[in-house]
Amino acid sequence: MDDSILHLIVFGVISWTTLFLFTRKLFPNRSFDFCNRLVSTIHAILAVTLSLISVQDWNCPLYPLASRSSHKQMRALAVTVGYLIYDFVCCLFDKQVKVDNLIHHLVSVVGLGAGLAYEWCGSEMVAALCVTEISSPFLHMREILKELGYKDTDFNLAADVLFAVIFSCARMIGGPYLTYVTLSANNPILIKAMALGLQLVSAFWFYKIARMIMHKFSKRNKPKIVHSNR
């Protein structure tokens, strides 16, 4: 791994932490989670942008497969590794520590770190980054809206549906194809394992999201009982 990439990761950890502290200062009456989600939203937008910028050929966005990573691809991955390290530590200070979230962060850091260490399969890695992060702003928007007082409103339902649709398209259409080409190409076994693991996790989350949306609509369509004062 090039020293400049390592420096970028360190700079990223410091920058994301600074941004979080600034957000806490800017919104002192908002929760820890609210401020962290604002930072996460900014990261998701930046990660998707850097991923798209790093595409070498828009006629075949996933190619070249199993090849040496470009500097733009390495930079995109490094920014996200820095964020994941920040967010992992940040999660430890939250009121409710979610073990599954910590494991997800650790696995992601190992996977992206492996890609940076190998300096290989950059096309597959940034594609995975784009697929996983493209729905994240809408995920965080759902929770942010709840804290702003829009829970159980049409606005919040729209955010739920938008998140579910984008997640489903990215993870359950783009994801399986990306997993297939990653497993088929001559990639390191660790990268293949990470690709398969990511798709399995995505399928599990898809199931939970589908249940959540069904519950939302069933609750919304349930007739309200009006109690008489007689």
Q: Could you walk me through the main structural features you see in this protein, from its secondary elements to its overall organization?
A:
This protein is an all-alpha fold. It has one domain. Helices cover 77% and strands 0% of the residues. 33% of the residues are buried. It has helices at residues 3-26, 32-53, 71-92, 99-118, 122-133, 136-147, 154-184, 189-221. The mean pLDDT is 88. The longest helix is centred in the C-terminal third of the chain and has 33 residues, at 189-221. The protein has eight helices and no strands.
Strand content: under 5%
Largest sheet: none
Return the average pLDDT rounded to an integer.
Answer: 88
Cα radius of gyration in angstroms: 19 Å
How many separate domains? 1
How far do the termini sit from each other? Answer: 76 Å
Unreliable stretches covering 5 or more consecutive residues: none
Quickly give the structural class.
mainly alpha
Number of helices: 8
C-alpha geometry: globular
Could you tell me the number of beta strands? Answer: 0
Helix content: over 70%
Tell me the series of helices and strands, N- to C-terminal.
Answer: HHHHHHHH
Task: Give a concise summary.
This protein has 230 residues and is mainly alpha-helical. It has helices at residues 3-26, 32-53, 71-92, 99-118, 122-133, 136-147, 154-184, 189-221.
